[in-house]
Amino acid sequence: MNDLTKPRIASRMAHITPFEVMEIQTLARKLETQGRDVIHLEIGEPDFPTPRPVVEAAKRAMDEKPMAYTRATGIAPLRAAIVNFYSERYGVQIPIERVVVTAGSSAALLLAFGVVLDEGDEVLLADPGYPCNRHFMRALGAVPQLVPVGSASDYQLTAAIAREHWGPRTRMAMVATPSNPTGTLIAPAEIEKLATLAREKGGSLLVDEIYHGLTYGVEARTALEAGDDIFLVNSFSKYFQMTGWRLGWLIVPEAYARQVETLAQNLYISPSTVSQHAALACFTPETLAIAEARRAELDQRRQYLVPALEALGFRVPVVPQGAFYVYADCSALTPDSFTFARDVLERANVAITPGRDFGRHEPERHVRIAYTQPIERLKEAVARIGAMLPRKA
Ligand SMILES: Cc1ncc(COP(=O)(O)O)c(C=O)c1O
């Protein structure tokens, strides 16, 4: 008989750990039930609602369209709209066969890793980085190789660093630009070098552009410019504020398209039908105008927050130029970012994420602060943290 108090859990689960940010969030919610006003700067999603034209398109689709499964790669008009978006915004032409609409970019990552990686294959990725990547790889039996990166390379993997770490089992390098948690970008010339290295080594390059569009003061470019053999991941979650709609996309090298479709059919049949019809409204001038206005608002918040944190004693060695995060060095304020984040929550009622979520490279020195709240709330958060810190002599 099975002992239900001792479930037989697959050994791979030993490598798959919960998000620290969720623990912080649970604590924050508990404090809120006690009547405390918590400012949430821990969450990786903006406070803006989904743009109205997208919501209206969803309602129309619910009335007028069959809510049936779609093709695993997504409805043709949405794939065509994505092709058109790359052409108009970035001047890059891609064949529609390379576009796969997915259940969030999370599914796009799983599909890309799934068609490339064998058990034991290794993937180079930056530490600090988005935690799910390494967990996706582990779920597939592949091995993440976390490469420590610091401010000298803008917290990014460069071609030189990747070359140094590329081993006999390395099958892929992956980067995110802008990155979570650091908000830093990789220059297009460096992406080209990374693509060249992957080619030379007979491997693949995957570029996560989920924060595409959310860049400040820099011209938006796409890694698709660097060659048609790159796996590119993108999403409706962040720029279009559709996190809960679970919709993203993957641009695959043509030679992998059939296998990606087969894997998607098997893993989840198709992405959400209503979300796909809604997302058609993303590429209209009305929605793009809303997204751009919000980008300007995020930039204002960023311009306020970075110097305000520095004035409190945080260090921000590389000013973030994208996404909505500041990866701040808090070592002048505390030896341990984990205890510090809990302290900030309990004493200042501000939720922030300790570095521990993002890897093993100096997590105790860093916290991630998301500017996903209106500027007045950011000001209040800074004042509250300032009040709990010891006064400078
Ligand atoms: C770098 C990065 N990639 C991928 C994702 C997954 O997002 P989604 O599945 O909502 O597209 C996130 C979410 O925060 C992220 O930060």
Furnish the topology, listing elements before pairings:
Elements: H1 20-33, E1 39-40, H2 52-64, H3 76-90, E2 99-102, H4 104-116, E3 122-127, H5 131-139, E4 143-148, H6 159-165, E5 170-176, H7 188-200, E6 204-208, E7 231-235, E8 248-251, H8 257-268, H9 273-279, H10 285-312, E9 325-329, H11 337-348, E10 350-351, E11 353-354, E12 366-370, H12 375-388
Helix pairs in contact: 1-11, 2-9, 4-5, 4-8, 6-7, 10-12
Bound molecules: pyridoxal-5'-phosphate.
State the gist of this model.
With 393 residues, the chain is an alpha/beta fold.
Folded structure, characterized:
Helix content is 40%, strand content 13%. It is of the alpha/beta class and 393 residues long. The chain has a 7-stranded mixed β-sheet with strand order 2-8-7-6-5-3-4, with helices on both faces. Strands 9-12-11 form a 3-stranded antiparallel β-sheet. A two-stranded parallel sheet has the order 1-10. Helix 5 links the parallel strand 3 and strand 4. Helix 2 crosses helix 9, helix 4 packs across helix 5 and helix 6 packs parallel to helix 7. The termini are far apart. The relative contact order is 0.17. Pyridoxal-5'-phosphate binds next to helix 4.
**Structural class by helix and strand composition:** alpha/beta
Through-space gap between termini = 66 Å
Uncertain regions spanning at least 5 consecutive residues: none
pLDDT average, as an integer? 96
The main pleated sheet reads as: 7 strands, mixed
Q: Which ligands accompany this protein?
A: pyridoxal-5'-phosphate
What is the radius of gyration? 21 Å
